[in-house]
Amino acid sequence: MQRIEAVERIVDRLESLGKISEEPDRLTRTFASQAMRRANDLVGSWMTQAGMIVRQDAVGNLIGHYPSVRPDSRKLLLGSHLDTVRNAGKFDGALGVLLAIACIEQLRNPVPFSIEVIAFADEEGVRFQSTYLGSRAVAGVFDVRDLERIDAGGTTMAECIRAFGGDPACVESCRFDAKDLIGYVEAHIEQGPVLESRGHAIGIVSAIAGQTRAQIDFQGIAGHAGTVPMASRKDAFCAAAEFTLAVEQQAREISELVATVGQVAIEPNASNVIPGFVRITLDVRSRDDATRQTACESLRQTVAKISQRRQVRGSWQIVQENPSTPCSQELSALLRQAAAKHQPNLITLPSGAGHDAAVMAKITPVAMLFVRCRGGVSHHPDESATSEDMSVALGALSDFISLLASRHEDV
Ligand code: HGY
Ligand code: MN
Ligand code: MN
């Protein structure tokens, strides 16, 4: 199949996947949902069509196996995630999975290693607030305590996995053995403005920013909005709002840091009642772990100060922490060598967004290929990448596989 046809097929498949949502009028596809079920079935059919042996592992990852000419060979892992944020764009995650499948369809010669295309079950962490569930299981670093996490509907993760056809008791079986692996390569939209500002279609990722996700509660006293004097209120939302502005202020002052309060839950959430309880999420990121950790400690103290002054009870709970993760120099050099033929003056750039590659780096060398996205927009329905750029990315990835095959010690 010509590359142009392969890219047209990717565009069609992105459209089809972009319609598989658990919400009627926007794209939201979360871990172990019915929408993920339909997405896994559809992508699994494309993997089968590409000549792969398809399975779903115990946690819900979809895995296509493309056999090698040498049964005892090691494995190259390709892929990305199939889950999305709420009101998502249709490229985040899906593009990496579809480019990987297209690489298999583009293979002209047998390769001296097997290729596993993994469509990870949960990178965003929307349903249970814990990211990378799929890649954590594959990397053997899944925290079984997460199985007791409860979603907004009161269902535990274990129950969701069972309902999805998985087996929470067998998460261990999802693990790949590091000695069997050559490496993991992920293509992903940049989700930032750098490639577009350079007029480049693709770039090589140097490192993935570290991130801390925390949950912060403010417990005040609910009361009548019309009768409680302002001076005697213990308004939980005002405490949360003051903290949120402090987060913004601190992040603006530190160049290497970004921080976001993305979710707010207010109780009792009635217009004529002073908010008694507020729970917010905090997302803090930096390429430099010390910067991130120092900022988190300072923000934790800010929660205590605001709570004391407003006489509310504040609590701070780390939900998840991921260190800043450099990509493998060696695997990235090979990817760069292949990609440089397709992108003159190819650049290397860091990723502010998290990716499954950050977890896969715990067991195998990782490399990432970024694809330009319009305006750097992502986690938004306006997210988009052009067919031309997808074609450049497919060419680079396909050439990377050929280069690896020509270099591979199993040959
Ligand atoms: O939040 C992130 O960086 C990624 O999209 N999960
Ligand atoms: Mn994302
Ligand atoms: Mn992503």
Q: What are the defining features of this structure?
A:
binds (2S)-amino(hydroxy)ethanoic acid; globular; binds manganese (II) ion; alpha+beta; 411 residues; 16 strands; 23% strand
Overview of this protein structure:
The chain is an alpha+beta fold and 411 residues long. 35% of the residues lie in helices and 23% in strands. Strands 1, 2, 3, 4, 5, 6, 14, 15 and 16 form a nine-stranded mixed beta sheet that branches. Strands 7, 9, 10, 12 and 13 form a five-stranded antiparallel beta sheet that branches. The longest helix is centred in the C-terminal third of the chain and has 22 residues. It is globular and about 75 Å long. The mean pLDDT is 96.
Structure at a glance:
This protein is of the alpha+beta class and 411 residues long.
